[in-house]
Automatic annotation (TrEMBL):
This is SSBP protein. It comes from Orthonyx spaldingii (Chowchilla). InterPro entries: NA-bd_OB-fold (IPR012340), Primosome_PriB/ssb (IPR000424), ssDNA-bd (IPR011344). The gene is Ssbp1. Its main location: mitochondrion. It is found in: Mitochondrion matrix, Mitochondrion nucleoid. Keywords: DNA replication, DNA-binding, Mitochondrion, Mitochondrion nucleoid, Transit peptide. It holds the Pfam family SSB.
Length: 142
């Protein structure tokens, strides 16, 4: 019965079950907020974790055509986790605060209990690919 919730029926008979496809894909382009850290929970594989900032900019005012109004910006911070062994190690070694990178992966929603024993929600991007676009030097930030 549970399987039927995830299966599309092409007909009324159970003989022609086809699994539906779905997609969980994220692409982010931004700057790294702090140097990555590597964590390892006992009995599990290590993970490299860092934050990535993306910016959304828009012009406020009456007319965007004649460039009137003020420019507003919103920064969104994303928690990136890299589990793939080769990518995890290269990311830990070479990504630095201020680096401009492109991340592809999937979004993951989870829960954890903080040190005060309070349940918290956590949204994480599980990276499948990290493309290094700059080294974060001042020249790249201008």
């Amino acid at each position: 019965q549970v399987l039927r919730q995830f299966v599309r029926h092409d007909s009324d008979t159970v003989t022609s079950l086809v699994l539906e496809r779905s997609m969980n894909r994220v692409q982010l382009l931004g700057r790294v907020g702090q140097d990555p850290i590597m964590r390892q929970v006992e009995g599990k594989n290590p993970v490299t974790i860092f934050s990535l900032a993306t910016n959304e900019m828009w012009r406020t005012g009456d007319s965007e055509v004649n460039q009137g109004g003020d420019i507003s910006q919103k920064t969104t911070w994303h928690r990136i986790s890299v589990f793939r062994p080769g990518l995890r190690d290269v990311t830990y070694q070479y990504v630095r605060k201020g680096s401009r990178i492109f991340v592809e992966g999937k979004i993951d929603y989870g829960e954890y209990t903080d040190k005060n024993n309070v349940r918290r929600q956590a949204t994480t991007i599980i990276a499948d690919n990290v493309i290094f676009l700059s080294d974060g030097s001042v020249r790249d930030k201008v």
